[in-house]
Amino acid sequence: MGSWAADASQARPNQRPPSSDKARWLSSEEIVGHRIKMAQAVETGALTQVAAKVFQQADLDTNGSLEWNNGEIRDYITQVLSQFGLHPPPESQVYQLYAAFDRDRSGSLELAECLRLVEAIVRAAFNIKFEATQQTTPSAQPATRSLSPAPAAGPSLPLAALATQALPVATGAPLDLHRLRAYRLAEEWVASYSQAVPPVAETSLVKYLDGGLQLDMSQLSAELQSLAVENAAFRSRMIAAVESGALLKATLSSIRLCDRDGNGYLTWNNGDIQDFVSTVFRSHGMSVPSQEQIYRLYTLFDGDQKARLDPRECVCLVDAIVRAVFFESCSVQGAPKAEAATYAAVEEWLANFSMPALGTAVTYFKGHPPIQMHVLAVQLRSLANVSALQRGRMIKAVESGELLKVALQTFRSCDRDRSGSLTWNNGEIRNFIGQVLQQFGMAVPTEAQIYELYSLFDADDSASLDVREGVCLVDAAVRAAFHGSELASEELPEAARANHAPASPSAGQGPDHRLEHLLRTCGDLKARGQRTAQLKAMLVAWHRAARDAAWSLQLEALKAAADKAQTKLKEEQVRFEVRLQEELGKRKRLDTSTMSARLATEAECRAEEVAETRFSKERLQWEARLKDERERRVRAEAAHGATAAEAATQAEEAEAAELRFSQERDMWESRLKEERERRVRLEASHATTLDEWAAQSKKLRRSAARAALESMVPRVKAQGLLARTLKGWCSHIQAKAARRKQSSAVDLSVASWLRKSAGGMKEAAFGGWSRIVQSKRQRQSRTKAAISCLERQWLEGARGLLASYLGEWQKLSQEKVQRKALADRRAKAHASVALVVKQWERGSAAGLLAAVTSAWKIAVDASARKRSKA
């Protein structure tokens, strides 16, 4: 590691490696706390998505790469890790990994390199490794082949080893990521299977799922005979795709598209498996099998009958269907080969395709959306940095169709497997575009720019382009690069081109002479009534000629500076080689001596001693940490025991206090019950007194009436008159029921008189009753308040309870005083009632005596009239 870092520093003199830092990046607690989350992010692709998004934000100059010297790579790693709640690692550790990815020593990393760098850092920090499946013993039958991958003797991942050395971490607890690693296991299975694929036509028995499932392709081929006839034209291409492993690699991307809920498997009931198989067949241009045909093979792989398949089972399902379809030859009469038909169709399309002018939106074939060139021109502007002559040649090649023909020939050469398509994942599309542009002397765009163009033509997300999509991609790239040029759409007349062509720099004319000549020509054209478009074309031509002249002047200075720099570089290289040979000679002489051997042995011994010392120190540190942890746990247990004992004591005290509270509450309840009974008796005595008083007052009123009658009539006639009056009054009441209404009127008048009187008996009675009720309610509210206060005071301690006792005693004393005052008020009320009765007995015209007398007089008069009539 040290020598490698030294070589890296010599290759890049401007980049000084940071100082060595052996400090651990993450602690054990951080690793355990974030490991599950980071493992999920790596396995599900969330880390890659976040890293790609941050890359677009960090690439401020939009050149498709990040540099180390200006700190872009360090800031990029910091931003990605901060998205997952992690702090960045030391700079020295990051530099070692960065140097491993910067293979061309350019001091910068592109998008794909940055994504792999972030993944390597996370995998090394959290010890996330790949798992290899076990190999099954093959059967003795010669025609039987197993699709289980061979056992991995050990992952040959120098990057993983480098990351582990650069980022010293502690091994975390074992983590079960079976479900999360389903896609990764499927990718490893496909990679191992692609190394030794059994032939389609020669293998009748195929083993899947580590030998747990064996399928007879001859039997399945008979069941899928109809599908084989429909897809007979694709037999050679699909057999090549199966045996090369390209089919299964393309199938993996289809699984991720169909896994909508992201749970790591596809289910049958919601149609995921049917959509998955249909997507794979459509991506290769084949007829889709029916649901019954898919279900027939699906049931063979769903051994646990959970109605779902993991990614590896889905890949095996597609492989089994394709093998069964193309196991036997079912060629159709007159059906051409898929490859010849594909290229022939594109050649026919090129012959009939009308080339549109530059600067317009292009619709290449039916069903494809138009490509907006002004949108792509912003991203591909760097490709148009060519000379005016080169620009004109490129525009002519685009509008004449020569570019598409060259692209078709290049596509044939890049299509090594003759499948009629190029894939993105293995770099075929990037190589194809680079070769076409280099043939025309143009710069190759970056990977990010190519991907933007590729995503416009890969409408089915199959990660591949056919022949027509590939040549249209190249045409769109060149059109977007030269978007806005006026040379193709605004052509000069032949006479104007012959007479007014801009002079070349070698003719000895400067930009000023050409400008004067151009202005004179424009005036002549305007005088002759020429169009504005021609004048505009003339101005564009002069502008480009002037720019070419300025570039020619600068080119000579640049060539001189380049020659000088090349000379210095060669001299420096010669001096470096001389020093290198001298140093190698010195080392060779020293290595052959006895002294160098002894020093090497001593160095090895010292290295072993240093390693043993470091190991002892680390062991002592871990033992000290374990001891501290044990002591901390003992102290924690002791503190826990003391807390438990204190809690038990407090619980006992609470139980005793609760018992005292219950006793006191029972005592207060008994007292309250006695008080209620006493008050009930008091109220009963009050009611009895009021009844007696009413009876006595009624008796007094009758006596007063009798005395009044006796005083008005002479004593001799009193008995006879009274008898006749009473007899007439009784007969009158019995004869006419209307007399009762008069009696009611008398009662109502008496009641109204009682209401009008301020000191009436009824008002006094109801006033006393209202005060009794109010006092009762007040005592009840005070009792409730006293109980709640006692509960609070009981919680506060014995002192508060004693104070409540004294307060209650004072309240009882005050109530006693109030009851005495109430008795005094009632005596006064009784006196006022007696006074009212006496006043009523003396009465006025509205009194009871006057009413009785008037009624008696009316009755006597009526009887006298009856006698007179008779």
TrEMBL record:
<feature type="domain" description="EF-hand">
    <location>
        <begin position="89"/>
        <end position="124"/>
    </location>
</feature>
<dbReference type="InterPro" id="IPR011992">
    <property type="entry name" value="EF-hand-dom_pair"/>
</dbReference>
<feature type="region of interest" description="Disordered">
    <location>
        <begin position="491"/>
        <end position="512"/>
    </location>
</feature>
<feature type="region of interest" description="Disordered">
    <location>
        <begin position="1"/>
        <end position="24"/>
    </location>
</feature>
<dbReference type="InterPro" id="IPR002048">
    <property type="entry name" value="EF_hand_dom"/>
</dbReference>
<dbReference type="GO" id="GO:0005509">
    <property type="term" value="F:calcium ion binding"/>
</dbReference>
<protein>
    <recommendedName>
        <fullName>EF-hand domain-containing protein</fullName>
    </recommendedName>
</protein>
